[in-house]
């Protein structure tokens, strides 16, 4: 899911809109799009899966790449804990934004 | 501790505290610099950092939209600043690398059978690239076309 959606979203919001290649969507349009329940669900799944992908891969990059094996438990707690915290923030932003404004 | 035991020939057999050295090869911390394929592997692993940045950036956009039009315009202006643009440019490269390497690996990981016959790996890979194009087109249409 991340592999399918991330490139186009990053190409548009990260490069094309800021560089002025394409006019960004109006506020009314993007607000209506994000307000749709299906969009929220997809954005939540995309954020959560991306964060847990990072947590898992980063954990093993430290484990194999830098051979930090003695801190395995601490690294795992920090990685998965951060991904979980990020997922909770994503849920709050998408469904209960007034909580963390 | 020394513990004598009777051997089959009657002579005592002595176990000693001596332990042979483990046969362990030391792997350099920089093993991933030794081969191009190792380096490609570690780059693929590091792409996870940019995947995480993408998630954070996406959530910042959602937050800005939730805060109103002025916050959305501020977010777009902030995205146009040089450091954020540079970070997003590098992130885009890694995200595309992450996606392509995933689509390359998918046919080897996913074995599809239709009517008792295995679907050719080229078709499975092609289906992933097709899905990528369709999803990208739909997202672009939703954001730009359906205004």
Secondary structure elements and their pairing?
The complex is a heterodimer of chains A (101) and B (147).
Chain A: H1 2-16, H2 27-35, H3 37-65, H4 72-95
Helix pairs in contact in A: 3-4
Chain B: E1 3-6, E2 12-15, H1 36-67, H2 69-79, H3 82-109, E3 113-114, E4 117-118, H4 121-145
Antiparallel strand pairs in B: 1-2, 3-4
Helix pairs in contact in B: 1-2, 1-3, 3-4
Sketch the topology of chain B as an H/E string, one letter per element: EEHHHEEH
Fraction of residues in H or I helices of chain B: 55-70%
Question: What distance separates the N and C termini of chain A?
Answer: 28 Å
DSSP E strands of chain B, number = 4
Task: Tell me, briefly, the overall form of chain A.
Answer: globular
Number of domains of chain B: 1
How much of the residues of chain A is beta strand, in percent?
A: under 5%
Number of helices of chain A: 4
Beta-strand residue fraction of chain B: 5-15%
Please state the second-level CATH architecture of chain B: Up-down Bundle
Using the CA coordinates, give the radius of gyration of chain A: 17 Å
Largest sheet geometry of chain B: 2 strands, antiparallel
Biggest interface and residues each? A-B, 51 and 52 residues
CATH topology-level fold name of chain B: 3 helical TM bundles of succinate and fumarate reductases
Structural class of the secondary elements of chain B?
mainly alpha
The total of helices of chain B stands at: 4
Oligomer, anyone? heterodimer
